[in-house]
User: Fold these one by one.
Assistant:
Number 1:
Amino acid sequence: MRKAMRVFVYLLGLVALGNSAPSVAMAEGQRVAVGPSTAPLHGPWRFHVGDDPRWSAPDFDDSAWENVDLTPAPGAHDGDVGLPGYVAGWSQRGHAGYSGFAWYRLTVTVESHGDAPLALTGPTLLDSTYQLYIDGHLAGGPGDFSTGKATVYSVRPTVFPLPHGMVGGTRTYHLASRVWMDPLDASDEAGGIHVAPAIGTAESIDHLHRVQWLQTFEGYVVDAVEPAAFLVLALMAAALMACRTGDRYGWLVTALVLLALLRVNQVLFYWTPYLSLRSYDIAVTVVLRPLVLAAWVLAWRDGFHVDNRAWLRGGEARRSGWLRRDGLPRDGLRYVVAALAAIYIVAAFVGRPWMMPGAAAACDVIIAVVRVAFAALYVAIIVTGVVIGTKPSAPPEAKPGAWRVALTALAAVLVGIGLFAAELNTLGIPGIWFPWGVGVARGQYAYAAFIPLLFALILTRLITTSHSSRPAARGTPL
């Protein structure tokens, strides 16, 4: 199916781009010839950091500005979705570390042999948002600049009709793009336009626009499907919890719902105009990531039934008065996990670039330490669960099958691959692959394998429960 979609994209691309006439870039602008084609506006563009509304005027003298060529290397694409035509931003063009406003200007002279209306696509990849001016008039854009500071919404494929008017077979347009890069997007390659806009007849631009939207859809469709699957699994786990006694699946249900919310925020940001970058960042980085880690640690703690085992006992627990009347320790792990999540949330919020920039480095260190602590707990629970589940001294009626222990551990490992992506990156493991030119993250592969595995584990439990008059033995993994 995915291969067929890529073939469809390629064929549409041939319709839209295959007959593009070559363009000649000149110092004062760009001259293009259009027929049944589109032409990318590589420039060179005039570029200047800062902000002044007068820079949108067609007669503004930008001769002292920098020249920026947006011509990509052959086969270049971005490292996330796989959008073609990618170039590095202003951070690699002499403005490293700069975030804020900047302007791009270009004069385009179009040679046309007909009277067909022309149109322009906006850049499909840009840090972080923009407004486009055509001949000094605001044409639109995803950015909200009404308060003097930009509110960033995702840059999605957009078409801008061009004014109609011809003099001697040519039309000249003065384009000016007001760009804002949010500090949240700062990186070694960030800043400004990464994929150049294109110009052409309205019909050819419409074809190109469809191709761009299909590429955007393909890039994030997995992030839409997987959350739906997580919610189905949460409903199944809730049903299992309702019909069984002695098993606890509350944290598993919570973890699945939180993970669904974490993944679906990506889709909401890149597919819709409703979620701003700051709102997305707070929801994902500050709130959901810490809570997801905490919930999954507790979910596997319950799934393996290791909360009251030997590795959570000890003299320290007895001395501190954490023991219940039955002699088992209180739920100390839950308090540890809650403390780690609270520290993570506070550090992530204080360390936002727009909150306390000076504290960002220290907060990043705190977050890294907390994440390592979560990872250590996560691995310890899996190892302890496997050891307990396969312990030879366990009574036969309370000992689960080795296959179930192994599959539960595998499910936990697959989720961990997605949860601890940053830590795996430091080990040099590739974080994203591009099958058929579409970016698919390592975590997406792991979750894709985890979903049917957990489905099978829960389903077999439900079937066993429906045919049994008593619940499975205490201590049985998922």
Note: The chain has a mean pLDDT of 82.
Number 2:
Amino acid sequence: MIECRITEKFGITWLMVNGRIDSMTSNEIQASIDALIDRGVLTMAADLEGVNYVSSAGLRVFISAQKRLKKAGGEIILCRPPENVLKIFKMSGFDSILRIISTDMELESSLSALKPAGASASKTINDIKFEILQKEADKGTLTIIGSQDRLSHAGYDEGDVTTVRAGQIQYGTGLAALGDSYEDYSNYFGEAVVLNKSFFNYPAVKGPAVDYMICNDENTGLEYRFLYGFGFSGHFKHIVSFDSAEKFISLSEITEALFEISDASILGIVFVGESKGFWGMNLKKIPVKKNSPENTLEIFDQKNFSNWINFPMDPAAINNLIAGCGIAVRDKNSVSTEIQGILSQGNNIHMHAGVFEKEPFNRRIENFEDELARIITGLEAIRIQHVLPKSLFSQGMIGIVELDI
């Protein structure tokens, strides 16, 4: 028999375990740990004082949890194991992989190293809890790429392609592809997102898969081919983390709150979050002249829409990590017609994002850029889509670049 209770102490979550951990009970411990990770708990302690035996099946549970948590900068700490249980961890060599402590004083000391570096402030806006790290940063720049004018009638050709080097676009979205010749890459245009100069796109073809190019300091000459889009560059003025225990939060609610954190008129947003109902759309066909609708109607016309647009009827990607970027404006009437043109009708935000595999992620705001890099270089991207404002999230982090208009 096994008993596993969840409690809070010293500012972290505890699993209070009593009984024998073996092949018949380890699944219960595993389920408790998985549920905590799904809630976003990355650092936890397991009190083993009441455990009388641990078999290899039990050891595997803790090692598995440690591997998952370490990827996101977390940890499971084992506390007060009896001498016979501690002996099993030592004999297996797991005491060199897992942190094992014997007193609360040791735990308090070790937890002090996990406290965020630098000053941050907490703020609750519309029942959303934000942790805010403010930084010194000048305003960034926004660049419009190409034009969306020919999208509605699928009228693009080779002369409409804009080549953008990776070193010229830090973050961005649009309809784009990878390749060296138009004959080749014209068959692979699709929804695209650029995150820290790395490129991801989802070709608008039957049976698509995410294509990508990871950029580092040595290959900033990589070339990305855009039919249209926008990019922005600059340093983060604010980095925020958010969560809400009461409800899931829509992208539109998050965006509205960001304008209470920043007083800028237009924001470049870099986003990482855990989806609780993702609403994303993408093109099914490439809008070049050879694919123009035979009925000459717009691709968004009711008669053509379902053949051209993958539009969700239900939310998807529950518990997946979402990483993306876009812009938001405080008042559409206050920005230029050119900027208004890249915003969807009735919305003040335009964002593209990648749906990545389900993994825990590190929500410490001082680690935001490292965590973004880990996701885009280490996790599998499932699809890239235009994000609809009603998409829901439980928690996440956002880097804000205040843009010059």
Note: The radius of gyration is 24 Å.
Number 3:
Amino acid sequence: MASGEVPSRSAGGADRLRHPVAPRAALAVAGLIFIGLGIFAYQLGLSASPGTSAGKVILVALGLLSAAVALLWKRTISAYKVAAIIFLNTLVLFGVLEVGLLLLSRSRDFLSVRPRADEPQAALLYVDDGRERLPYYLERDWSREYWREYHFIAENLIKYEPFTVWRAAAYRGKTINISEEGLRETPGASCSDGAFIVFAFGGSTMWGTGVPDWGTVPAYLQREIPAPPARPVCVVNYGEQGYVSTQSVIQLLLALQRGRIPDLALFYSGSNDVFAAYQSARAGVHQNLSQVAAKLEDRDEVSPVLRLLAASRTFTLVRRLTDRQGFGSLPFLPRNRPAPPGDLAASVAEVYLANHEVVGALAARFGFDFVFFWQPNLLTERKPLTREEASIRDVALGVYPGLVELLASTRERIDSAARERPNLHNIDRVFEQETSLVYVDPWHVTMEGNEILARAMLRALPASSHE
């Protein structure tokens, strides 16, 4: 050997270094062990049954995979390197895209985004939850702050509540204020001793989605309700996002348990009862039943990885580019389509009317007046629709097939029952003469719409309720 030369390894030695024998042998042995455990699990006392089970199949599959890797070691290593590079590059690109979309969304918060004259109006309804880009909101100085506060509450402050399942936590803002009890505050309410107390129950339409504190139905009731002489008025907003009538009845019961007895209780509901039944193909349940049940039963209907991806801005962008038929964060849709509308509608109406009777019994026992109002919605609305309302309705009909029939069939049953119940009113035709924009989505209305609703409620009140 010449001086200074470095001894070289043989070709066989280099190959052994690149493809070591020990790991391959270990994988092969592990594969045989897994296969053996899977096949002879019952004989080895690892299984209570001699038949096939998921555990046995997994053991055999792991064994076969280990053996295949050992047999195809060189190709496996090469494929692993390629897959790793692709995976890491995908993560980097995903991260860059997420950061870019985050910066873009933050910059949009400081810019006044107005519709272009040549942009189809329908397209505007699906950007950033859609509603906030409607011209109605772009023209109001409170809207940007309202939607910022609304999204913060929806994403961070919805907490578990005994018996009613959920309610928002306390919050102080410029357009939304929620008390320590989780109740949205009513401006001007004077709740001192001797006040005329009005409890307002319902879902997000009573709570006031889409409007500031001073534009909710309870706010207009507070300003206009004819109270008895020398008595201040106190309208308490018990509405909450997504509540069905049963949750409202439970909320009333909880208030009565604490000694809080109103002079008048108003229930403005109906659409949530129908939609919850549409989701679950079952009447008498709250919204998002399967998701809430999955948490209680310690199971996850959606993979955590898929849930994480679905929460990303990249997923939202892809969804919007590939599917224009959405309103941003849509409520969970039913896994199976509901039962025939007639059957399900009858069950929904039966539960709703039973709640009406329960409140009647409580009112008689505790000495207060009550009125139920079946609410309007855009899907069965007869008002002259604006361009925006027509677009919203068309999209909703595509997103929720069969829902309009369920709503209409349930309303017919409520109409029939209302003829025999003087304190049950269907006010879903209250906007028939309105030509301007009222609906900002299929359920919620503008401040002006809430004022019309409040006045319709006041006209329906029996004289004894405010004397």
Note: The two ends are 118 Å apart (CA to CA).
Number 4:
Amino acid sequence: MKKLYMGLDVHKEKTVIAVAEADTQKDPEHYGKCSSDISRLVSSIRKALKKYGVSKQEASICYEAGPCGFAIARHLLRMGYDVIVVAPSLIPTKKGDRVKTDKRDARKLARAHRSGDLTAVHIPDPADEVIRDLCRARTDAVDDSVRNRQRLLSFLLRNGHRYSGRSHWTEAHMRYLRELVLDDPVQKLILEEYLQAVDAGINRVAGIEDHMRTRMVDWERLPFVQALQGLKGFQFVSSMVIASELGDITRFAHPRQLMAYLGLVPSEDSSGNHRRQGPITKCGNSHARWMLVEVSDSYRYAPKVSKQLSVRQENLPRSVKELSWRAQKRLNKRYNRLAMRRIHPNKIKVAIARELCSFIWELAHLMAKEPERKAA
């Protein structure tokens, strides 16, 4: 059967198509350029297949993961095409190749796809991607809110006002800000504008969280999100972020694969008897990695099932509670040992986050088996 490999160099406006035939050593051919609009792109792919005399079942298409997302891959998969989205950082590149153009990139994709040198990335489910966008929108809203608060405090500091209370952004602090008297009416107007921005940011974050709770009710990963909240440090938002960013964790055959996917494994440059490990690779999903590192800081405290954690663990299977307690003891012991060696706190948190991946992987497999146990 004749086989055709197609490489798509996808951009916002235009897509460049290159074609490589299977049973030949010829270099891939540049087919042409078309609009990145999905309907026009599909039409161009059909014309290319017709030109080379192959059917859609005999063609294999690839393009790089990037800002254009997975919409093209999902559409082509629904139409019956064989499509993979490849990791850009793992595409083979020659050191001496200093010329980079769209045509060359498309041909390089087609050539590497024909030789089997490309690494496909996971295409998330549409429902997971919607909730992932919700979680990232909340993160953006929190960042904007923090910036607005910092601008307000900087404005007051420039004008000689400093709050002497116990903590900022409490009811007492907000009352102090609203009752503050400034020398010039324009400065009072500026203060009110900053206060309006702070209030709007708080309402924006709360609104997005309401949408997250509403959407979570019908989400297929709801049992895993609830089980993840049974682990120390995980609450509603962090659990939804991890579940939406990672998707189906059972696709990883071993916890080390999950650690590598999140970029939490150390880089290495070893030769002969000399072994040299460097900083973590930081490849893969940066949002999930950041959340895990933040959560890992809670394991520096002694193991304890607090009142809040016990509430979150209500109605959870006993196996999940046992895993949570085992994770607390293991990770706290690891944290203390690294601290006694005077390792930098940031490195300790990364090391704890890496081991936390193992417990999350085990939890995902536990929850995948839970429906089978209930059915039995």
Note: The longest strand covers residues 14-21.
